[in-house]
Amino acid sequence: MSNDRPARASSSFHFVAGLGTGIISASLLQPVDLLKTRVQQAHSTSLLSTFRDITRGPNSLRQLWRGTLPSVIRTGFGSALYFSTLNALRQHVFRSNLLTSTGVVSMSRNAARSTSSSSLPQLSNLANLTTGAIARASAGLIMMPVTVIKVRYESNLYSYQSLVGAGSEIFKNEGIKGFFAGFGATAMRDAPYAGLYVLFYEQSKQHLSQVKETTAAGDALLKDMRSSSALSINFVSGVLAAGLATAITNPFDAVKTRLQLIPGKYSNMVQASRQMVREEGCRSLFDGLVLRAGRKALSSALAWTVYEELVRRAETKWAETEGAL
């Protein structure tokens, strides 16, 4: 094996790593997701009043985790598809001689890693933006039926008793089209969000690693970048990237929720956004922003930090195993 091509984790490993991180984040942060859905379904509802309504009812703690199963399925398998697809795209771009010669891939892997906390190939801003958007849009399309069931399960506008019952009811009343309600707004939210997230995340890691470099030198720096400081840099970068990307794409999330919850009132993304602004003002497009930003910051930072650490540890172990042969 050449010096600049260390052992690579398989696609199945990236799938399993993404699945695990998605399940963990979805399970822990489901109450935040549920509150966001309830706030967005009606502009007049405040976060505090929504929380009080839920906690005053019977089985209040259980109600905060309502919809956890579809959320875990969606986020778990969605993350698995996203990370495995993103890895395949990034590896393809990184290994492309044409992209290297035109500057889309800006540096060698080893050179980048020496001053970065990243366990992934280092690409240009354009490549980070594009690969993130394509991977998220692809995963979002596949998981769209589960997303629709999840949102309606969290809302109090529907009284589904089971996932099977929810799926049967949607198919009976709306047909196959009902499982893809709001896909346009979802794609317009997820693709830019994921692209911007990867872009901001990689940039933040580079800048924070450079700050770290000024306080360490030589082998001590390299050792730090592969241990605890890498974890902290990746987590902080994840929080910052998620906050910025969430603020930019929140209007699409607000529109998406309305389309999925009230398809009879809102027919498409353009009509829904216009009607929301006309009836409720521009602020309706930013309903749930604080909740979504908080959830995204925690879930994305947790998922990416754990994911990169799993990849780093696996590749280090496989490289040591190959070196011993």
Low-confidence stretches: 1-7, 107-114
Strand content: under 5%
> How confident is the prediction overall: mean pLDDT?
81
Rg, Cα atoms, Å: 21 Å
Q: How many runs of DSSP E, i.e. beta strands?
A: 0
| Residues in helices, as a percent range | over 70%
Q: Strand pairing plus helix content: what structural class?
A: mainly alpha
Shape: globular
Order of helices and strands: HHHHHHHHHHHHHH
Number of helices: 14
Q: Cα distance, first to last residue?
A: 12 Å
Report the sheet with the most strands, covering strand number, pairing sense and barrel closure. Answer: none
Q: How would you briefly describe this protein structure?
A:
The chain is an all-alpha fold and 325 residues long. The protein has 14 helices and no strands.
Write the layout of secondary structure elements.
Layout: H1 11-41, H2 47-56, H3 60-64, H4 68-95, H5 97-102, H6 109-113, H7 125-142, H8 144-154, H9 163-174, H10 183-214, H11 218-225, H12 228-261, H13 269-280, H14 289-324
Helix pairs in contact: 1-4, 1-14, 4-7, 4-8, 7-10, 10-12, 12-13, 12-14
